[in-house]
Amino acid sequence: MRRPSSDSFRVVLVLPARAYTGRYDNDEHVRDLSQLGGERFHAYCPYAGGPAIGPTGYRYHPIYLHAKVAVVDDEWLSVGSANLNRRGLATDSEMNVQSIAPTVARALRIRLWAEHLGLPEEEVEKADPIDVIDSAWPAAATKLERLIRAGSPPDAAQVRRYVPGRNPPSRLLDIIQGATLEH
Asked: What single string gives the DSSP state of each residue in 164-179?
């Protein structure tokens, strides 16, 4: 992140908005990566919306995303249950498939991005990935945020920006973690 190999270096993470466990770790890593990567780093969380009883007639809920999928440079991919860190890939008893398979990696990225962004796969396939990261992802997140605030019907694109917690328990955990070996 500090010394990208090119101007086209980007990292896009899709994380659960409300992780059952691990939210604190997600928040810490997103804060760190945001500081290191600036505009090269993007974090989002998936949402679903639909008709509901309430003041607007629509409600949105975060999707608990537990899949561990990584695609790097449309060449390398990893899919499975292991967390994508040293412990998850080396010492935990997890199951992952990792492969250098450009055709499969690219197809997986296109399919996932099309789903998250609410775009046809053909459109994502034809577009430059950097343009999609720099333009389509933020636009989709901004649009969904507007729809949620307005209580409007859901759109095909359903991603929001991931915002690390700023609540008192999160601050307390910052202090505790700083005083332990876990940091």
From this structure: ---SHHHHHHHHHHHT
What pTM was estimated for this model as a whole? 0.83
The answer to whether the beta carbons of residues 165 and 23 sit under 8 Å apart is yes
In the chain, domain spans: 11-65+103-178
Instruction: Report yes or no: 115 and 63 within 8 Å, Cβ to Cβ.
Output: no
Residue 154 to residue 61: CA distance in whole angstroms: 11
Digit-coded pLDDT (tens) for 21-51: 677 778 888 999 999 888 899 999 999 888 8
CA trace torsion 44, 124, 80, 26 (10° rounding)? -10
* Sign of the CA dihedral running 96, 101, 106, 107: negative
CA distances 48 to 21, 96, 148, Å, are 21, 27, 11
